[in-house]
Amino acid sequence: MQKLQHSGFKDEDLPVCIKSDKICKINSDSPLECFADWKSIDIDSFCQKQWIFLAPVFHESKFIYGFDGKHRLPYLSAEQPGDGSGHFGEVRKLQLHFAHFHKGESAKILSGGSFDVAVKRLFQNDQQTDVQKFYEKEKHTLETMKELNNKHLIKAIATYTKGNDKYFLFPWANGGNLQDMLQSNQGTLDKDLVAWVLDQIVGLSEAIWALHDKKIRHGDIKPSNILCSGPGTGITNESTLIIADVGLAKQHVEYTRYRNSTTTTRHGSITYEPPEVSPKRQLKTLSRNYDIWSLGCVFLELIIWAVYGVHGTKSFHGHLSQNSNARFWEEVGSGGTEQIHSAVGTWIKKLRGDLNGSSAFSDVIELIEKKLLIISDKKRADSMAVVKSLKKIQGKASETDYLFSPELERLATSRRLSASDGSVTQDVVNPSTQMRISPTHGFQGY
């Protein structure tokens, strides 16, 4: 080692490799003279063991990395791995040692000198050209999102290749996702919850507007793709909702949808997809107003949860799932005319009746009904118009009765009483059958 130091060999010169029985830098054919008198067995040993000392350091100012397949990355196993996989990749919960991440003051170092991260590996398949294309698009999108620095958009730490594999590295959201919250967190209907929901709706809309301004369509907005991050573990009024998982599935679908021999199989949830995905429309491109429909679905579900609790969201999805596709729209008649799903119309009517008057939530519901959940994407509001309308509502929310109206107070009291005696209220009558929908029906919207 002393000879290497005397010859000026530094860590930055690693890794090295053997070329024509000589040691060279991995990106050069020029032999390194400091290894000239080394024995072959020592050269082999050095080349094999060097990787132990080459764990890379990620920098906040750099996003794209390329590593040799033999590189060892500075990950530790998490106490609760939280591994999961889908059609396009797998996600593992790991820990990144803080010494290998140069970040600003926002970094929170957990005990043991590491913090939780999500490592997403993209599956390799037989269609490598397509995989490479949407990997490049996703890489560009995530880099743009990081530059936007919007608190409601996921900020990827890095993307990297390791050998032939492709990875994305994200901070881990300890609060889970919005779907988890809607299914399991009952919440407490009060002024703070209403203010939090309104703030999140405005923030998510602003985040999508920022993406659209960069000519980026998310394409897969749904509760499971919205993370809860912040103090606690996703507890309402504390967490920030963050849009994540932009586009891998969407881009795969777009590349394969109109091939001559393409399958009609679509991956991911269809619940939050807009009517323009209907095969009969045969659209080769989809507008950014695709996202507006999906936002309308998520916002409606979020308000149902805030007003009626977990039983409300389960009952809503039980009603929605009576349609085999469980979408927010349906086709009716012999011609397959597209219209708002009857369950959506019923719940909007119920909310209007229960809220009964001018309030922040009732105005958001009106916006959802008249501007977001519109069958024609051309008549649907764009993201800028949505944000402007929501900001007006938010601007009036300083008025206590507008934010938390007497009607909401009565609903909150009813919820507390039903929770204390174990009974369940807020069932909804299915207009097609006049049968009451059990609020314990399984959540089937995902």
UniProtKB/TrEMBL annotation:
Protein name, per record: Protein kinase domain-containing protein
GO molecular function, one term: ATP binding
Transmembrane segments: none
Source organism of the structure: Trichoderma harzianum
Phylogenetic placement of the source organism: Eukaryota, Fungi, Dikarya, Ascomycota, Pezizomycotina
Positions of the Protein kinase domain: 77-403
